[in-house]
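Supplementary material to the annual report.
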Amino acid sequence: MDYDRDQGFLEGMGIDVADPKKNADEAPTGKYTGGKGGDYTIVCNEPSNGAEDGGRTAMETCLTKSDGINVVYTINEPAAVGASAALKAAGITDAIIVSVDGGCAGVNSVKDGTIGATAQQYPLKMATLGMEAIAKIARGGEKPTTSDGLDFFNTGVALVTDKPAEGVESITSDEALKICWG
Amino acid sequence: MSSTSAAAAEFARRQQSPLQKIQHLLHGHPWLSPLFLLVVTFVVFSILNPRFASANAQSLLLQQVAVVACLAIGQTLVILTAGIDLSVGAITILAMMVMATLAADQGVPGILAILIGIALAVGAGILNGILVTRVGLPPFIVTLGTLSIFTAIALLYSGGSSIQNNRLPDIINFTGESFAIGPFRVTVGVLMVLALYCIVGFALTQTAWGRHIFAVGDDAESARLSGVASKRILLSVYTVAGLIYGFAAWIQIGRAGSATANGIPDANLDSITAVVIGGTSLFGGRGGLIGSLLGAIIVGSFTLGLSLAGVDQQWRLFAIGVLVIVAVSVDQWIRKVKA
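Predicted assembly:
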């Protein structure tokens, strides 16, 4: 899962991911094609254990490598909260943090500005549809089908942000709070 | 008669080889090996990436190792008595969740929540101590069991949720406040840990209690026969360790900006690593507190230094593992010193 999310973020930015099953193998500098395009520098790639103090330590390590960080991607929202604390301690206020999960705590982080945007997933839908499919099969019905072009059934993802960008669909944090999990 | 005393005098006068001189020196001053290692580590990583030596990086390093260094104080005391404490992380998390839940959900005033959390940690330490002294179980087994018990209690009490610092009163977040001392940024938590080292270090080296801890660790039976209340010393060690873990919980909340039952997953092993690298013998009776602080900083330096040098994360784990084995091997060699 960790390389899926990491490489997904990079693909969204339009950065060449080299081997999509491996983290940290991208070229450290180059051009990205997402949005208006431009030059990028990957400063660091650090493990965070998906937790606040791991996120903070990872962000601090990144900050010792470079002072000019303006975009941070984290694997989940707790790590983003830790990263945000580290940025604040270092006096950096204009970096954008993006993350994944969209749990209610995470959406609140988007609302209070800690996280710039997060990808919201719907585990409750996965569980409900999964159980319905099992019940159907048990009663002799047919197996569920995978979504077009994918090898799994897509229960959907939405980008949650209060600063929508042109050309990227998103929902606001208030809308996300109505359908968040956890 | 005279030939044996002559032989003894000969032995005392013998010329020691340089290696034996070093062995003696390290035996008398156990903190010398980690100090030497720390200096080498600092020089090597500074060469690999000069940013390592910057005041900013070193300040962050201290902040990153503060909690483990604090836990290592309690762990050092326990290991000095030839015991081991595997419930370190669990007690800290229990205290952390209780402090945070009381303050955020039950509206308990901050300072009271902190005191209750620390008192709970002390209680947990007393439980460990009683199981070791009264029931007579080996510390490894006791703390292995209490590790699960305290973790479960913490999860049950907190419901597995995490509490962000914006819901906590200022006094609890106080340990995360940072300010500048010259070019360094330190947090209140870091200063608290250093103060604890001074206080416990003083007690360990300058009081009878401290001497008795070394005696009990070296040979509990001989200590008892010499008039040391071994069982009471052991109980007091686990109790004081619990107190230290309570403070560590307060410092951890400040550091992480939240109280979560999933925090500090490697606390147990990290604290033991710091103690072992710091020159305290796992077999008890020899070592010291300052070594554990150096040990914690060394482990932190490896993590930060290797990362700044662009080395993959897995190699950092490998390096620390090698370090631990080397440290224990050196300890074994030092133990063989001949008077």
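The beta strands of chain A are 29-32, 38-41, 71-73, 96-101, 117-121, 157-161.
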